[in-house]
Amino acid sequence: MRQIKKPTIRDVAQEAKVTTSTVSRVLNESTLVKPRTRQKVLDAIERLGYIPSKTARIFKSGKSYILGLVIGQSHISNIMFNAGFQAQFKALTEKAHKEGYNILLITAATADSESYFEVIKNQVADGFIIFSPSQNDTLTAMLEEADIPYVYNMKYSDNPQDRYYVSSDDVEGGYIAGKYLLDLNHKHIRFVVGSVKGGYLPFNADRIRGFQKALKQYGVPFQEEMIVKIPGQMDESYNGIHKLFQTDRPTALMISNEITTVAALNYFFDHGIRVPQDLSVIGFGPSEFFRSLRPNLTNVSYDLAWSSAKLVDLLLQRIEGKPVTPEMPKKPELVIRDSTARYSEAAPKPS
Amino acid sequence: MRQIKKPTIRDVAQEAKVTTSTVSRVLNESTLVKPRTRQKVLDAIERLGYIPSKTARIFKSGKSYILGLVIGQSHISNIMFNAGFQAQFKALTEKAHKEGYNILLITAATADSESYFEVIKNQVADGFIIFSPSQNDTLTAMLEEADIPYVYNMKYSDNPQDRYYVSSDDVEGGYIAGKYLLDLNHKHIRFVVGSVKGGYLPFNADRIRGFQKALKQYGVPFQEEMIVKIPGQMDESYNGIHKLFQTDRPTALMISNEITTVAALNYFFDHGIRVPQDLSVIGFGPSEFFRSLRPNLTNVSYDLAWSSAKLVDLLLQRIEGKPVTPEMPKKPELVIRDSTARYSEAAPKPS
DNA sequence: CTGTTAGCGCATTCAT
DNA sequence: ATGAATGCGCTAACAG
């Protein structure tokens, strides 16, 4: 029954008593193949169980209809359980499939330019969606040099030339969160963010900037200790929150990472800190996620489905060599739920 | 600076004043290329910015080092936010990368055999990891016929010949959960499971079987209403739990799906049903997930990292044509945490 | 140690 | 409407 070797287009041609050209024509639904010959070929294909070699087709056409999604290996564990990543990932794959592409998941050993480029250049894909490495200037240069289409999932440079990304307005995000808390009379606010090698990811830097803008507007002086760096994994976050609350008792918290948010809520649950009675909490990320938490969390809501779809569009434009139409960053919205309350001195304080 | 066309191995050969064979040899670090020529070639490569065509290499070698992960499009939304899937997915990609493979995410329009086969056969991948479609007998036959290496993520057949999967012992899972609740004096138990087209997924059927075994052992008669079918998405689950608790007040719940578990906990939070005081709850899935819930959930713990790695091993064995060594299903363990308590009449009942 | 030759499976000229 | 011939980029067998 089974062939020793998989049948090729030649076997089909022979079986159908035609040439490979004809077979190729019926495969590609070419114009004008006589119905009779066409049927002969189809029969032969059926009889042999012939499947055209995708590999050869890619080789010939130069198009794989594959989009590479590049992530640093060290990030993958953390990132995979992050609600924002999940939302992006889902939107990315759905959009890609809608456009006839599949997603190839690529991980680099580390999150630096060299490691990224090393894996990217050896991959079969028409273009790459890159989850930004720690530094990406050299990576960008290398990709340009090699003429490889790419897009980044976030703002990756301050050079206005570098506009191959779709972002949200993160300054606005930090601003509306801060402003809302200040409106609620909070002054003792802490902004919990992740940190990479002591610095901030660009979007966190922007959010902090927005937060500072709100503070200034309300005449509250910014102090360094308002920014609290806590790692983004569950246990480390829990410990980080613990450490914070041993020395400090803010009345409001902004948390830039979803996993840290869950860890914080768990910590508050475990230690009888009531949200929002004792503490107001604002999260950042996809709204559906915060809606599934208890208490329902007030959050700065990002439309990741939208930005992910735009990102794929952008990449496809680059692949097709079309001029790229940059997208305006979408403003995030504040969704007010049950985790934020007005601060007053009279409010019960945790012991 | 940039070439009109990407340089090929021929361009390099010309530039280095050697033949393509020699270039190929240095690319493949072949034995015995004179250091001097080797350096000449390397220089030429550097000068031209040459990158070997992965596509051509795949075409030649027939090996892509890509593993296809096949999911029904209708499932992808639900599956992506499911803790068990995430854990599998993460473990799968990490293991694949460790073995030098990348994961290509493939979605089929629907979850039936024809749709699955249609996308699979047109993909470039050395083998496929298939998240089981609703019915897979014909799919399996077609894959065998086409000589495509595949494995399923779960038991997909009762034919002992069909052993291309790695599973856990789900009968045991249902059994230990039921037994523990019975030990705690619960009799009014409900087992919440998903359902597909009115039937159960094989692993749920097994878990139910295990539950029945426990009941029998304790002399508690099984009744149909002990099994509650609730869809696996967040909102539908919430509504399903709501509906259940309007007509029924079990003292203990086993929940076969992680999202449904979260939805249920949210419902209990919203309606003042205390866990475990008013209701004991047992979840099924990866332990880390249930540990991140509040209250900390007692759960039947599956080692998805282990089974996923084994699954990749199995697939690689098939790809390499090695005889397949089937793996014994691993027994899940009951991890007792804070969501289960002994039942006594005196216990406070919700109003 | 290096060059010559052939061919992987397919699509695409160019003839007929 | 179909066949014959060519080549995509690379590797490998065979010479030399």
UniProtKB/TrEMBL annotation, chains A, B:
Pfam families in UniProt: LacI, Peripla_BP_3
GO MF annotation list: DNA-binding transcription factor activity; transcription cis-regulatory region binding
Gene3D superfamilies: 3.40.50.2300, lambda repressor-like DNA-binding domains
Source domain of life: Bacteria
Keywords, alphabetical: DNA-binding, Transcription, Transcription regulation
Limits of the HTH lacI-type domain: 7-61
InterPro entries per the UniProt record, alphabetical: HTH_LacI, LacI/GalR-like_sensor, Lambda_DNA-bd_dom_sf, Peripla_BP_I
PANTHER family tied to this protein: HTH-TYPE TRANSCRIPTIONAL REGULATOR GALS, LACI-RELATED TRANSCRIPTIONAL REPRESSOR
Protein name: LacI family transcriptional regulator
